[in-house]
Amino acid sequence: MGKIQQRNALEVLNKQRLVELARGFELDVTASQPKDDFIEALSGSRRASYEKILDAMTMVDLKDICSAYDLNVSGAKQVLIDRILGREDAPVIKPEKVRKDQPVKKRTASKQHMKKNKPQEKEEPKNGIVELTKELWQAAVTLRGSIEPSDYKRYVLPIIFLRFLSLRYEKRRAQLEKLIADPMSDYFQDKGALEDPDEYKAANTFIVPEKARWQHIVNDVARRDDVKVQMDRILKLLEDTYPEKLRGLLPPIYAGSNMDPENLRGLINLFSKEIFESDQGGEDVIGRVYEYFIGEFASSEGKRGGEYFTPSSIVKTLVAMLEPKRGKVMDPCCGSGGMFVQSDTFTNHNGRLSFYGQESKDFTYRLCRMNLFIHGLDGDIRMGNSYFNDQHDKLKADYLLANPPFNDGSKGENGWGADRVSNKDPRLDLGMTDDEGHKRPMPLSKRNANTMWILHFLNHLAPGGTAGFVMATGELSNSETARLEVRKALVDLDFVDCVVQLTSKLFAQVQVPCILWLLSRNKDGSAGYRKRTGEILFIDARKLGSLFPGSRKQKFLSDKEIDNIASVYREFKNNRRPKEVAGFCSVASREDIRGNKYALTPGRYVGAEDEIDDAASFEARFLALKNKLIAQFHDSAKLQEVIVEQIRRLSQ
Residue 78 — very low, low, confident or very high, per pLDDT cuts 50/70/90? Predict the structure, then answer.
């Protein structure tokens, strides 16, 4: 079948999706206009080409269009787009070249060229990739030798980093070489483009110095007796080449370590597998491996909730709900920076987002900056403890995305340090007053920092902004005085926008469900959103998710499931109250919440069974069960005495 005409393709989508697409391209239409007006605006827009509109659609949208016209619905996103455009087997369109007197950073065609060729995300994990990553992980573990498990990541991740950089550089260079050799290309015979840094920046990558390229590492460095010294020199070379971005991120670690040189060579050989260079996604494969290794390091060290790694299903869900398009994005516990990378991906790398983060641990701080560098992103990432040393204390963000450490302070004798936070700290001021009209700061739990994080997030929200973050399940209904008072204030002051309960096992080390909270400063209808004063959307998504192929302990959410969750919230904040779906979603009023003693468990409002089971409430439940068991032992002993006495009497 040939190309599906643009109007026919748009006709397949419902009005809500057309509204969202029109908003994304900032078209001059309002939600009250009929569906045909949106089709007309999208079809006639110079700003939004047919292909750009298709690229902005979800996988579900594209599959619906293909299905409506009896086209194959399998394949990655770009495959579906090509199928709709009737060019499934068409060659890649070459970018136009900008005149020499124009700034190269405006070569949008080069970015478009990269977008067409970037690896596309799969609808769900494939067995081949999963097995490969497991195989690589096990092989890497066997090469650990005498290195402590907690330190091993410091030696492995720089090698993956070098491999990732080289792959991105080699791919872009190959594209440029092909264009330079093509008489029909505007790049024809322009060999200077091969050494033009802006040509690589336009593709979100960088020129890698020759001695730091993977082929040099494999063919020369790995064969030398001083391989450990040479690897340190390569890391130093990269830092010196890009000092503003990499200074302090790649310290010399190999020469002074007790790592066996043969094990280092083994790691280099391990990441030289041909699979990384295959046409079926060399760069995508190494990206998946990088993500997998970060997750496994977190898992092997028992990091609860993912101290520096948040599973991609959760990151994608939060980003799809918040829809960051332009403005400031903040993550005050940014870990490896996954929230920033996914936000940039969501915008198709439009360059309209700026990123601000804070991280308290040195290695994780460096990991985040490396991750941003790999993806060609800039960010203001700072070191410091967000509780006591807020490095962005004046920043107000349009979007805040975070996965804070769950229940911090619940295990230690001294808690998390609540006594170090002054009552005059602006984060504790929600405008509440006592009976005499004096300001009343929010109380803090000494043994649990969850509410400190929530107040911290809210304080950093700009007017019209939204925060989406992961939180322990128990925070929905915990009755501890300080935590309950904060939850009451958030509800009464109308900051709580949406609560989503996810399935269990999304984190490798946390088997219970986790919660997504969304707090907003736009429920009054500001910033172009629907007025939803006094309304809170509840979504119970515990039934969604599947186990990774070959795994019995960790689940993922498919793209369709993520869209099912996100689309309900988008309808809620943009257009109307979504239709109630028993057991899945419902909108409750503040009066409903107060009637349930301010419990925010979705199951209470969507008609599903509550499931509260987290580490914060474990201690209290364990103590109660222990006391009950001791009492039963006591009763058992007394009963045993009675039975023995009865037997004695019968035998007389």
Answer: confident
Segment (H or E) for 197: helix 197-201
Identity (one letter) of the amino acid at 91?
P
Q: Check if the beta carbon of residue 386 is closer than 8 Å to that of residue 377.
A: no
Q: How many domains does the chain have?
A: 4
Distance, in Å, from the CA atom of 316 to the CA atom of 344, rounded to the nearest integer, reads 11
105 lies in some domain: no
In 303-459, which ranges are continuous DSSP H helix? Answer: 312-322, 338-346, 362-374, 450-459
pLDDT of residue 323: 95
Both 495 and 417 in one domain: the answer is yes
Cβ atoms of 4 and 52 within 8 Å: the answer is no
Distance CA 371, CA 138 (A): 23
In three-state secondary structure terms, 505 is coil
One domain, residues 130 and 248: yes
d(CA 287, CA 291) in angstroms, rounded, equals 6
* Model pLDDT for residues 531-581, shown as the tens digit of each residue: 999 999 999 999 999 988 777 778 899 999 999 999 999 999 999 999 999
Q: Check: CB of residue 359 under 8 Å from CB of residue 386.
A: no
Where in the sequence is the domain holding 176, given as residue range(s)?
Answer: 126-300
Angle (CA) 470-537-19 rounded to 5° is: 100
Report the largest interatomic distance among the alpha carbons of the chain, rounded to a whole angstrom.
Answer: 116
Give residues with Cβ within 8 angstroms of 584, minimum separation 6: 539, 540, 541, 606
- Which of 146-160, 173-187, 245-259, 550-564 shows the lowest per-residue confidence on average (mean pLDDT)? 146-160
- Tell me the pLDDT tens digit for each residue of 201-229: 878 788 999 999 999 999 999 999 999 99
| Residues 585 and 644 reside in one and the same domain | no
* Token pair listed for 25: 């391209």
**pLDDT tens for each residue of 466-502:** 999 999 888 999 989 999 999 999 999 999 999 999 9
118 pLDDT higher than 60 = no
- pLDDT at residue 98 in the model: 36
Do residues 256 and 322 both lie within one domain?
no
The predicted pLDDT at position 301 comes to 56
Helical packing angle, 362-374 and 338-346, nearest 10°: 20
Cα–Cα distances in angstroms (integers) from residue 462 to residues 329, 396, 397, in the given order: 11, 5, 5
Say yes or no: 132 and 258 in one domain.
yes
In angstroms, how far is CA 371 from the centroid of its own chain? 13
Judge whether 305 lies within some domain: no
Burial 481-520 (b: 16+ CB within 10 A, else e): ebbbbbbebbbeebbbbbbbbbbbbbbbbbebbbbbbbbb
- Identify the pLDDT of residue 255: 94
DSSP string, 219-280: HTGGGSTTHHHHHHHHHHHHHHHSHHHHTTTS---STTS---HHHHHHHHHHTT-GGGGSTT
Q: How many CB atoms lie within 10 A of CB 552?
A: 7
CB 520 within 8 A of CB 399: no
Query: What's the whole-number mean pLDDT along residues 111-130?
Result: 42
Cβ neighbours for 354, distance < 8 A, ≥ 6 positions apart: 327, 328, 329, 378, 379, 380
